[in-house]
Amino acid sequence: MTRTVVASAKREIVIGFDEPFCVIGERINPTGRKKLAAEMVAGNFDTVTRDVLDQVAAGATMLDVNAGVTAVDPNVSEPPLLVQTIRLVQSLTDLPISIDSSVSSAIKAALEVAEGRPLVNSVTGELEKLEAILPLIKKYDVPVVAISNDETGISEDPDVRFEVARKIVQHAADYGIKPCDIVVDPLVMPIGAMGTAGRQVFALVRRLRDELGVNTTCGASNISFGLPHRHGINAAFLPMAIAAGMTSAIMTPCRPQEMEAVRAANVLMGNDPSCGTWIRNYRDVQPAAVVAANSGNAPSARRRGGREARRAQG
Question: Could you tell me the pTM of the whole model?
Fold first, then answer.
């Protein structure tokens, strides 16, 4: 079985087909969060600190760390800001990290201060990117997320995306990088815009597992983009993707509905021995009806109370 080893200074986790699903917490990312970006530019890391602690408490396996604030201030240099953010995150938790940047100089700077064996997020199939990032992956002996797009952009054809992934794996082999150190993101399309997006990604994940033998990841919330009540779609998508062979996702662990779906999938896939994690998290959870009955707010309790009062009056 393919095993992708990621580690902090004190903790090692394994991404694999026979391992619990790896939840990569996505919250430390100023992209699309102008308030957070402005705070980071100003040297205020209060929100970052809260996001770290909240994701750890919610059950994240590792944390993605991004410092791309150019949407707020294009003059900010990403490498030192990413280094500062990583040092803070490492001081708050012993979870492994994912270094999230498309800037090779920022990735290099981050790798120099990252403890353990971080995941690098990411490289694409563009030749320029491959030649900039893969030497760093080899030098620092770390795994990398490979995104299935290249100079032609993101194809709607899943066969094209598979071939881009194959190209990255083959190119990495030229640098002596093994498939176990490549985690492919097959790119999840929004189901609201492409009705076949779910079936596409499930088929792609199976091919990536069976034909290339690589672990996989995705931005889980992409599937529900543009739709109402997105968490319901995400919570259904995740167990289906896990059953197809997906082994990790970049997602928000602070959404109980989605984390419950992941933990249930781990149980049903046989990756939660003796249901230990499920029991630890949910043994004290009572059904809503029981909680309501105990508090005297259940409809049946009100009806019984009403009937008893009327009999007493009669």
Answer: 0.92
